[in-house]
Design a protein that fits this description.
- By secondary structure, this protein is mainly alpha-helical.
- The protein folds into 2 domains: 66 residues, Recoverin, domain 1 (Orthogonal Bundle); 79 residues, Recoverin, domain 1, CATH 1.10.238.10.
- Helices cover 62% and strands 5% of the residues.
- A two-stranded antiparallel sheet has the order 1-2. Strands 3-4 form a two-stranded antiparallel ribbon.
- The longest helix is centred in the first third of the chain and has 15 residues.
- The radius of gyration is 16 Å and the shape is globular.
- It starts with 6 loop residues before the first helix and ends in an 8-residue tail after the last helix.
Length: 177
């Protein structure tokens, strides 16, 4: 892992150009400053710079997903792979990554509380009040068998038929004025 990034290998794995990988390396270095990793605090600052509201809760969810070795910091490879996964060209990869993001407690299913937590974090990031309403609507849409949890199969089916589910997890920053 670490900051040793195989540019050609990642470009091939994620079907992107080497220049895209190099641009992600540049962004990473720009946000790290003198350290060789992104702490949770720096990760929050990155999100709070580009979104109009308080992006801290959403940044924490993303940080936990990017920090694949659970050492409390995101290194260059984790950062690049996380961004590439969140915007993967391969829909199967993107859906798997998104499911794992919603499954905050890593239980293998998604609870109503997890959907609410993500929806409310998203709403705070954009300064809207719709978090719980969106969560309820999403949960009803995804929980096909009404067992009060969402399996990967239910999530996969819902995400393929409604891209809003993926957009909620991988929001685009508002256009800079």
């Amino acid at each position: 892992m670490g900051n040793n990034v195989n540019v050609a290998g990642l470009a091939n794995e994620f079907q992107v150009s080497e220049s895209e990988i190099l641009e992600l390396k540049r962004i990473y270095k720009e946000n790290c400053g003198k350290s060789r990793f992104l702490s949770r605090e720096k990760f929050r600052k990155v999100y709070n710079k580009v979104f109009p509201g308080d992006a801290s809760a959403f940044a924490d969810i993303m940080f936990n997903k990017f920090d694949t070795d659970n050492n409390g910091r995101v290194d260059m490879r984790e950062f690049i792979v996380g961004l590439l996964m969140s915007d993967a060209k391969n829909l199967d990869q993107k859906i798997k990554f998104a499911f794992e993001m919603y499954d905050i407690d890593k239980s293998g299913t998604i609870s109503r509380d997890e959907v609410i937590q993500i929806s409310e974090a998203y709403s705070r990031m954009y300064n809207t009040e719709e978090g719980t309403t969106v969560a309820d609507r999403l949960f009803r849409y995804m929980d096909k068998n009404n067992d009060d949890e969402i399996s990967f199969e239910e999530f996969d089916e819902a995400a393929r038929s409604n891209t809003e589910i993926l957009n909620l997890l991988f929001p685009k920053p508002p256009e800079q004025v």
